[in-house]
Amino acid sequence: ISEKDAKEIGIVDNDWVEAYNDHGVTVTRAIVSARIPPGICIIYHAPERTVSVPKSPMRGNKRAGGHNSPTRIHLKPSLMVGGYGQFTYAFNYWGPTGVNRDTFILVRKLPGKPEF
């Protein structure tokens, strides 16, 4: 997260944050960096980070989702064609096209002390 955005919402380096939208939520550590432009948040893939991740108040104190939880999946119409192995679609967070990696999220500091 950019230094400017982090300052506006009261986040410092290594704080636990929730990144969320109407599709999902993930809990991760914030890295405040001058290399990130204001208004942009980058979450790198990290499927191994499901251990020692705090519970999310937004999910009723359940474990928060993975790094792809807030992403949306946009379908290509050709993937809806049935009967062909290369044209099938199944629900997943990897998605059939590359456009599912860009989405709008809100970021907030994890309230209170993290619960594991």
3D structure, described in words:
The model has no long low-confidence stretch (mean pLDDT 80). A hairpin with a 4-residue loop joins strand 1 (16-20) and strand 2 (25-29). The chain contains 1 helix and 5 strands, in the order H-E-E-E-E-E. The two termini are 24 Å apart. It has a domain at 3-72 and 101-109: Barwin-like endoglucanases. The longest helix has 7 residues, at 3-9. It is mostly beta strands. It is 6% helix and 16% strand. A 3-stranded antiparallel beta sheet has the order 2-1-5, with no helix packed on it. It has one helix at 3-9, and strands at residues 16-20, 25-29, 55-56, 62-63, 106-109.
Q: Percentage of helical residues?
A: under 10%
CATH topology of the domain at 3-72 and 101-109: Barwin-like endoglucanases
The averaged pLDDT comes out at: 80
Report the β-strand fraction as a percent range.
Answer: 15-25%
Radius of gyration from the alpha-carbon trace, in angstroms: 16 Å
Number of strands: 5
Globular, elongated, flat, extended or rod-shaped: what is the shape? globular
Structural class: mainly beta
The largest pleated sheet is described as: 3 strands, antiparallel
For the record, the CATH class of the domain at 3-72 and 101-109 is Mainly Beta
Reading the helices and strands in chain order gives HEEEEE
Uncertain regions spanning at least 5 consecutive residues: none
Quaternary state reads single chain
